[in-house]
Amino acid sequence: MSGWTLTLKQAPALRLDLRALSPAALAGLSADAVAKFGVWHGNESVALGELFTITARTDDALHFEGDLSRADRIGWQLAAGRIHVDGPVGDYLGAGMSGGEIVASRDAGLLAACEMSGGRLEIGGNVGDHAASALPGSMDGMRGGTLLVRGSAGARFGDRMRRGSALVFGDAGDFLASRMVAGTIAVAGRIGAHAGYGMRRGSVVCAGTAPAIPPTFVTNDANIAVFWQLLARDLARHGGAFASLPARRVQRHLGDLAAGGKGELLLCV
């Protein structure tokens, strides 16, 4: 037994920075030591026991319960282990994670999965702007792993994304896959304006309503049947609207010609 359930006692007056909390950081600690573990509340370090009710678990997971919409950086740079959040979460969920698994049952704030390079992150609700993108001031977005968003995503989803798979089961906002370098994005619902703006490479699968094709993309009739079946079957294992992809055909549009034109928007028909 080394896991813990942390139940928020009440909404914090200031934002919490929980980057120091991980299954590895708390493994092997006594209940008293966990209660004294320091986290940031605004610019003040406070003991974890002042904010959360702490309960030992029979497994090795780290569970959060309560309204954590003012708690940022949960799962920051997670390398291994499991984190489950039963409630809404704040910004930077899973940012910089390289392994392990994070499951959040409800909505997440801004910048989720930024610079993620491995592992699996699942968000049960909606996610804010700049998910799977680059951190402010950085040049590289998501670089690996799998991101699943069961709800809808905000603007700039996958900005500067370089590798990995990111699936949105609902709608996606404006500037989807902007400045994308590589990797795969799939959206089951509607897509906002300017999809693929500045896109250099990578694939965007549009499984729902076809977006407006930007004027800097061109139709391509090359035979991609084998590639499409491999990609569609990989996406289909996530279920939902993606389960039927292997049985559908795609229209391919290459772009953004203003940035090299090696990316592709795949419209499912």
In words, what does this structure look like?
With 269 residues, this protein is mainly beta. It contains 4 helices and 17 strands. The strands form 2 sheets. The protein has a 13-stranded mixed sheet. Strands 4-3-2-7 form a 4-stranded mixed sheet. The mean pLDDT is 97.
Q: Can you tell me the number of structural domains?
A: 1
Order of helices and strands: EEHHEEHEEEEEEEEEEEHEE
Q: What is the end-to-end distance?
A: 50 Å
Largest sheet: number of strands, sense, barrel closure? 13 strands, mixed
Relative strand content: 25-35%
How many H/I helices?
A: 4
Strand order of the largest sheet: 5-1-6-8-9-10-11-12-13-14-17-16-15
Number of strands: 17
Oligomer: single chain
Radius of gyration: 20 Å
Mean of the pLDDT scores?
A: 97
Helix amount: under 10%
Molecular shape? elongated
